[in-house]
Write a structure and sequence with these properties.
The chain is α/β, with parallel strands linked by helices and 209 residues long. The protein has 7 helices and 7 strands; from the N terminus they run βαβααβββαβααβα. α1 (20-31) packs across α7 (192-207) and α5 packs across α6 (155-174).
Length: 209
Amino acid sequence: MALSREILIIGIAGGTGSGKTTITKRLMSEFGDKVTAIYHDNYYKAHHDMPLAERAKLNYDHPNAFDTDLMVSDLKKLHAGQAIECPVYDYTIHDRSDRTITIKPSPVIIVEGIMIFASEELRNLINIKIFVDTDADVRILRRILRDVNERGRSLDSVITQYLTTVKPMHEAFVEPSKRYADIIIPEGGQNEVALEMVIGRVRQQLKEQ
């Protein structure tokens, strides 16, 4: 599906803790309400009928963990100028919550997630594909800090999940998807040169509106 140039869709992918969100926040801070972001993490599949202990054992780092079809549908609606009701995922219970967030379309839409380039249908909706490439040691340390401090996880559970699913799934799906990127940014949000280039491209897009 070929998208028009009226709306610029930017995909930001990369491994867990690579700095994707830092780049997304920088763009949103720079351009305010002219930029909208949707996160693949919010599209984890719901498992309301599964006990918490079973949900905790699921592999959340495989493409099948995501309801990517719903994200594709929502992205098409945003591109068509329609608001969406984005699902909200609750990491503390390993399940989709009952809440949704209303997201309105804007001239620039950011799609962020580790697996967004693994889906051909989703890739084809994205105008500029950015892969954030950060050293694995840095990424695991960032993930530990985030999951313990922000998501109420124990240190042992984070390390176990990283070794059993995150690392092997990164090698199987995330890293190979890098070949689809238009731009590869080493060190994520710390790379000011790359960030300024992306900001310049967005600024150009907004001038053309």
